[in-house]
Amino acid sequence: MGRFKKWLMGILLVLILGVGVSVIVFWHDIQEIRGVMKYANVFKKEKLVENFRSLYQQYPSTTLQRTDPVYLLPVRFRELPISYVYSGETKKISD
Questions:
Q1: According to DSSP H, which parts of the chain are helical?
Q2: Distance from first CA to last CA of the chain, Å, rounded?
Q3: What is the rounded CA–CA span in Å between residue 51 and residue 58?
Q4: pLDDT tens per residue across span 30-80
């Protein structure tokens, strides 16, 4: 029975060391995956309103001040097309 315990403890120790080394080696990837999952959870329906309300706290940003006066783009109205081409197929807006 003592031999079996030693053998089992050895396997358990190798597994724990293997997991520990894997975590150290892949730490950057693990953090990247956690960040992507956290960002993906922002858009879950149950908490969408609360998440967007506090989005600036989770993902801070800075305001950039303009250096030159703003250039106003000229307004040019035109009719929208009735059809368009997508992936080689012509589709109608009404579809």
A1: 2-25, 27-41, 48-53, 55-58
A2: 74
A3: 9
A4: 999 998 998 888 888 888 888 888 888 888 888 888 888 888 999 999 888
